[in-house]
Amino acid sequence: MTTHPVLREVQISDYEKVKSLFRKIRMPSESIEAWKSYRKSPALKKAGKDFPFGWVLEAESNIVGYLANIPMIYSYQGSEVFVPAGRAFAVIPKYRSHGLKLALKFCKQPGVDAILNTTANEHSAAVFKYLKAKPVPQAHYNEVLFLVYNSWQFLRAVFIKCKFPGSIASGTALFLAPLFKIITILKQKETYPNLQELFLKRVCIDNLGEELDKLWVTKREQRVFYTDRSVAMLKWRINIAPSLYHMYGAYLKGQFLGYILLKIEHVEHLKLKRCLIIDIFGDFKNDENLVILISKLVGEVRDLKVDTLEIIGFPKAIRKIVKRFLPFKRIIPNWPYFKFMTQDLKTVCQNSDFWYVSLMDGDSSL
Amino acid sequence: MDMDVQEKVIQVLINIFQVSPDKISTETTSDNVENWDSMNHINMILALEQEFGISYDEEQAVSMLSVGEIIEVTKGKLGLQ
Question: Residue A4: its chain B contacts at CB < 8 A?
Fold first, then answer.
């Protein structure tokens, strides 16, 4: 006879038991540093001191289920919107029927304007849909656009994913890599204008302070639902794993226009080094400028010695430009789910222009 | 009518969890049905709502983790208690 698990708020002292839960279900667990960082988020100014950082299901002195609750702030027309994001939703198989309790606790938490869940696989999507959360109406979120720098590494990762034995995956990839390289070159045969006075410069978030805050003050007034990009929030996010982030400032005649934020991800089991475009944010004046900036970015990223450059999300206009440089695509099962509590936002969120969702949103790039 | 509810509930569970009829009784709980995970739990709730033409509260849906509990809650919703 199995004991029904007890639902309670997670404590930092639960870390080792939660880690053990993730080991049991063979999923990567979060670091203790990440747990500590969540508790220092600038978004906590809206949350109050009793904000729960997640919940656990406990049975027989073990943690058998977990859902993290990360405080986030959004802005819409200058108003701050408090939106906790769900993260690391996991329940061991024996107790999976109790998973809904965690999701309900997350969706029904008091004092929030909305909730967001970005790590929706098939199971969690079903759960959040049942709890009346809605998928973000931003087209093609599940379509990853990418460019391959290292054909051999990329093809080997594809074959490893297709369960080819290691040596066969490497050999087949080596054989096909030249052909794939030719296909990549053919797909990029377009040439783009260059503008000497428009350039990208590797920057550190600490050096951007005033320029960035000025940009954010302007952008947060728009009728777009932006996740908080204040210097404080960006610093908090980047400092969770600073060595993995690369930030580029975009300048026109020396004037700061915006930034592009990248994150490097090592996919150990596929032996692949991916570079993800986490954010493209600014006032780039016109589409042609963005075309030039992305073209320069593709060159900058080549120097980072990564295998691929990838982008997930962003509105149609940005994707259309990026697609010219990142010509391949693949489909992922993820789709972000939101649920608004405030009536005015419930209405406007139906409009796709309301959204600017990328890996910056929720926990996707934490 | 009470018997009807019990039989219908058990039939829904047999269909959703793909188990043989002898594996489901009024004593059965979610812990002794292999396929009773969160997704099938939701499928079960939706199937029961359709079968009986009712709608469970989210809190009720979460607590319906045994056949006995499901029957009790469903009877309550149908005004049979």
Answer: 31, 65
